[in-house]
Amino acid sequence: MKGFRDFLSQGNVVQLAVAFVIGGAFGAVVTALVVDVINPIIAIPFGKPNFDTLELTVNGSNIKYGTFLTAVIAFVLIAAGVYFFFVVPYNRLQARTRSAAPAESDSRGCPECLTVIPKAAHRCSACTAVVEPQAA
Fold it and tell me: What is the pLDDT of residues 74-95, one digit of tens each?
């Protein structure tokens, strides 16, 4: 039981559970948006308020492509919402964090052969040239 408790108390499991709940709620909001707002607006030229009623009959078989069309619209809107509300702000935050504190490299180029060597090196490992060490 201790191992299972430790597993559940890890941050990744908690974050995954929160993401799952938020994702479900976000999916419900986007589905309502598609069904109640987008479908009626897109269906104005077609005269039908809902794509779910669109179907095609071929040799007695009903192909309900309207339901598929509704699902595709919902998927595109969910993907766009996730991208613009989560991915774009996260990338901007990461870029701001990276640009605020640039990491200093522990290496430099050899003045003789331009091979990358540690700053504290006294001699180049590629051309064996004697180099002056730099403070790390």
Answer: 788 778 877 888 888 888 988 8
**b/e map of 94-115 (b: 16 or more CB within 10 Å)?**
eeeeeeeeeeeeeeeebeeeee
3-state SS, residue 61: strand
Token pair, residue 20, equals 């799952």
Tokens 């669109």: give the residue: 54
Question: What value does the mean pLDDT take over residues 93-118?
Answer: 81
Q: How many domains is the chain partitioned into structurally?
A: 2
Percentage, residues of the chain above pLDDT 70: 88
Considering the domain architecture, whether residues 71 and 124 belong to the same structural domain is answered as no
- The answer to whether 77 and 33 are in contact (CB under 8 A) is yes
Instruction: For tokens 């039981």, name the residue.
Output: 1
Pairing mode, if any, of strands 61-63 and 107-109? unpaired
pLDDT of 11 over the 70 cut = no
